Amino acid sequence: MRKYTVQLIGRDFEPAEKWQLDPTAAVLAVQNSADYDLLVWDPNDETCEIYPQETLAVLNDRLAHTAYSRLLNQIAQVANQQGLQITPGLRRQWYLVGDLAVLEHASLLNVAAALLSLTIQAFKPATDNCQTSAVRLRGLADQARCWLMAAQVTSLQLVASPKPLTTLLQYLLDQADVLDVCHAGGRSRAWQLANDAEALSKVAVHPTQFQTNSAWTLIRAAALEHYDQ
User: Fold this and answer.
1) Where do the domains of the chain lie?
2) How far apart are CA 122 and CA 137, in angstroms?
3) In the chain, which end has fewer C-beta atoms inside a 10 angstrom radius, N or C?
4) What is the pLDDT of residues 103-121, one digit of tens each?
């Protein structure tokens, strides 16, 4: 079972605190101080990971002037044209998708599907419980990805024209809620991006929910973005 702690930045796996089965203390440490890296150790197979935390300045530089940045502008334009009131929380999730996409070298199709699923979930919130919400997000991401693939939408079309995003956003907003939870199975890249962006956007971050390695390096940046808004 994994254990968690922190080290002073730049060290070579030198725990600064006791190992804990609960990651909460380590997460709070990296959220509240730029002095720490997050450490993860699995004593069962002796795997060790160091997760240096990305800075907002570096993330912004990496994202600027990329196709991912253009896609973020595209989804914002489409949402505004649909009359949707974009909250700071949703916008923060969008930019976390962008940060994850840069670090994970994600395809634009998967990024678009992740952005759409988070947008739709924000305006069609689950009415039952958190598990239903998680299942719905996965279903929406998988459906958006499959639709874009079936329609043979290209990366160029996604950033050059709002039509693909507009059409799919309206379709998924209009479909019956029960259909939102249908998904293709497995762990699609689109769902992983959406899942991790949503997990990082919360005040209480639970890294055991992460699906990508890059999400572990965004804990502090996500906290700073949250406090800025």
Assistant:
1) 3-51, 56-228
2) 10
3) N
4) 999 999 999 999 999 999 9
